[in-house]
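Translate sequence into structure tokens.
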Amino acid sequence: MVNSEENVQEKSCSGCGVKLQTQDKEKAGYVPKSALAKDRIICQRCFKITHYSEVSPVELTDEDYLRILHSIGDSRALVVKIVDMFDFNGSWITGIQRFVGNNPILVVGNKVDLLPKNMNLNRMKNWLQHSVKEMGLKPLDVLFCSAEKGMLIEELLQTIDHYRKKQNVYIVGATNVGKTTLINQILKKVGVQDNELLTASRFPGTTLDLIEIPFEDGSALYDTPGIINRHQMAHYISTEELKTVSPSKPIKPKVFQLDEQQTLFFGGLSRLDFVQGDHQSFVCYVSNLVTIHRTKLEKADELYSNHLGGLLSPPGENQLSTWPKMKKHSFKIKAEPTDIVFSGLGWVTLKGSGAYVEAHAPEGVTVTVRKALI
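Result follows.
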């Protein structure tokens, strides 16, 4: 138990791993002196996240991430890389092999509960294996789970135990892929009570340092801070708007039958112009709370100029002064099922007639094409 202010800085927050301090309310790790007598101490930021869904923006530097990642490469361990199946491209960490050295890697696709209910897991596994290989990674295996719903956790635990061979396990991934929620599911499986779980939320950057969870055999499971992929939409919108953009329920695809010279707006966050091609369906996979507007391409600029922050929201009116300019990305889509992916927002599937499209997203947000997931 911590019972003196002198040794508080030797302790870490039980929720997010950050070093504790009692001096500055505005800095990470702040804890009131009155809380020091408790057996389990969490920082004020974790307390607000847990009880009020209120998050203070604390961001680690790139040097912090490099320090943590290199510590993985310096040890012998199993690395479990978590990706978000709703935002696979946005949540992918490039160059992870450079940091983890020769350590073996498992890839786990989380948030499968958010995909349409008719998804075939076997087909999706083939898609994930193909996509991971294209990204230049050769994992031991790929698996799926829903940390939020507790789906497929037992299978994942058995696989981790099989491959770790009594070595440490590091859970790594981009911000908001569900690493901490997954670890909490693992802790529940071994009997840890709810009031002793790690702090988890939908907000990026909740975990701020390594959190060690000992195994009975002397090794440990480590939760790591989420690596910030700055090309994701989440880093351009407010925490309140993130609740709209990040789905919490299974996606209900929205189908639009479009002729060329028509446009789809996804709130005011992005737009997709069907410039040229045969009449065809555009199947949209975004959060059910994001409103999609269809208009003629010739009217798209005017609609965006006059209604951004109102009819076209998010972003809201209070964000317009800092909202980035839209950048255009042009794609010639082949005659095969293809996804046009807006990093952190979702994707649009074209079924295979071929088309020329132009996608617009805030400057800094990545737009890519890939083999259709569904």
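Note: Residues 1-6, 196-208 have pLDDT under 50 and may be disordered.
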